[in-house]
Amino acid sequence: MDRRLFLSLAAGTAATAFQKTPVGIGFLGATHSHADGKLAAVRSAADLRLIGICESDPKEQEKLRREGILLFSRDELLKHPEIQVIAVESPVRSHASDGLAVLEASKHLHLEKAPADSMAGFQKVVSAARSKGLLLQVGYM
User: Fold this and answer.
1) Average per-residue pLDDT for the chain
2) How confident is the model at residue 33, as a pLDDT?
3) Which residues contact 131 (CB under 8 A, 6 or more apart)?
4) Does the model's pTM come out above 0.85?
5) How far apart are CA 23 and CA 84, in angstroms?
6) Which is nearest to 55 in space by CA: 37, 77, 33?
7) Which residues of 75-96 are buried (b: 16+ CB within 10 A; e: fewer)?
8) Dihedral angle, C-alpha 139, 121, 32, 52, nearest 10 °
9) Residue 34 confidence class, pLDDT cut points 50, 70, 90
10) What distances in angstroms separate CA 23 from CA 12, 41, 42, 124, 140, one per listed residue?
């Protein structure tokens, strides 16, 4: 094998290694004031693929349907095999419990701010992410 062939094979292998498959993302809730902006950012990102949303508010569900977004039950979203990360965009009072549910489902978590309605709730989320080796990102504009 000459140097030119070696370099071309190495470059081709490296290029293949860096090809990205979009990360599957779901939303748990869509009523937080930052949800629309977060959803727009996800939909425009080439490295993310929106799988669907779990939202209980009927008016919000209808809006999401009109936008062509798939709706899931909470259980379906948490167990969906193509979803690797879930963005929690529910009301703040639900952030800690929703975040814990995401982590218990072994999904990475983007948790909208405020991440909990108490420091104790947030500490539980951080502890769960650490113990499971999962990523926790707190939303910040």
Assistant:
1) 88
2) 79
3) none
4) no
5) 7
6) 77
7) eebbebeebbbbbbbbeeebbb
8) 80
9) confident
10) 23, 14, 10, 26, 20
Separation between Cα atoms, residue 63 and residue 47, nearest integer Å: 25
- Write out the E strands in 32-71: 48-54
pLDDT higher than 70, residue 3: no
DSSP 8-state code for residue 126: H
Structure tokens at 101: 């549910």
Which helix (H) or strand (E) covers residue 104, if one does? helix 95-104
d(CA 24, CA 133): 18
pLDDT band at 12 (very low <50, low <70, confident <90, very high): low
pLDDT tier at 7, thresholds 50, 70, 90:
low
Burial class (CB in 10 A: 0-12, 13-18, 19+), 110: buried
